[in-house]
Amino acid sequence: MRVAVVGAAGRMGRLVVGAILDAPDLHLAAAFGREGAAASGSDAGTLCGRAPAGVSLRPVGDVVADVWVDFSLPAGLDLALNHIRPGVPLVTGTTGLDARLRDRLDATAATRPLVAAANFSTGVALLRSLARIAASTLPSADVEIIETHHRHKRDAPSGTALALASDVAASRGVDLASVIDHGRHGETGPRAEGRIGMHALRGGDINGDHTVWLAMDGETVSLSHRATARSTFAMGALRAARWLVGRPPGRYTMDDVLGLGAVGAEDAFTRS
Ligand code: NAD
Question: Is the pLDDT of residue 262 over 90?
Fold first, then answer.
């Protein structure tokens, strides 16, 4: 299976390229990076600490591939959508997308199989299921979502945190935008019923921690997930890539890939 990688010189991209080079069933078809990037022209294998792969980092362009995997920035995903051939499956983990790019993803799913996920870990898919159960079982609990990431992360809150908030809102039959509170500051007054609090911590080299905290009179419930290695996202994305090839066009979720059944809420990762 020939895989093209967008953002191949990035933290995630290098893990994806390394996993492709290590996998006997996968072949690195292209390694795309930002135009003018310092690593342009470097061998993709060398960039991820492997033997030279004979594939140089180059700007996003045309390639013969069975599937594309994107972990870049919104601009990189935009370019990928310009260049990916008709019908070729796309896996993207890029977060912080604006409304126009979200619409582009929706449109492209009409013509190709697509998995766009804020988080490719199996544990997070399970956490989302548990959050949906908790939100509907405890309908009056005050819900706060806390996410923690490394100092390099560019968008906040994380796409995963937004997906969890979307799960909670959908389970309660409310519109997320009308109940979410991003942080607190100043004279906030008492907490209003039904709100979903969202808090983003940044620092160090944390791969990604997410907690859904539900507080009631007399008890609290905390549902938490911790990613201890970023390679879990790369492996999950390649699992999605293998699963997507040969599927009919459409937008699929990690629940589909993992066989966890229908999701209760649309993946909200694309909200910026
Ligand atoms: P990073 O900054 O290390 O890497 C991003 C790479 O994209 C860089 O090498 C950059 O040069 C490249 N890039 C930027 N613009 C480009 C363009 N126009 N064309 C081609 N390449 C371009 O970031 P990262 O930590 O690897 O994360 C990448 C993305 O993946 C972020 O949006 C992050 O939030 C997301 N992410 C998702 C998951 C998940 O499981 N879905 C996990 C981790 C990170």
Answer: no
Q: Whose CA is nearest to atom 31 of ligand 1?
A: 94
Burial of 125 (0-12, 13-18, 19+ CB in 10 A): buried
Residues 6+ apart with CB under 8 A from 208: 119, 147, 148, 149, 158, 160, 226, 227
- pLDDT category of residue 261 using cuts at 50, 70 and 90: low
**Going by CATH, does the domain composed of 122-226 fall within 3.30.360.10?**
yes
Provide the percentage of residues in the chain whose pLDDT is more than 90.
Answer: 91
This prediction has a pTM of 0.85
CATH 3.40.50.720 maps onto the chain at 2-120+231-270
Catalytic annotation present for 153: yes
Give the binding-site residues of ligand 1, using a 6 Å CB cut-off. Answer: 6-7, 9-13, 32-34, 37, 60, 71-73, 75-76, 79, 93-96, 117-120, 233
CA of 94 to the centre of ligand 1 (A): 6
- Write the pLDDT tens digit of every residue in 175-211: 999 999 999 999 999 999 999 999 999 999 999 999 9
Residue 213, pLDDT score? 98
CATH 3.40.50.720 is held by the domain 2-120+231-270: yes
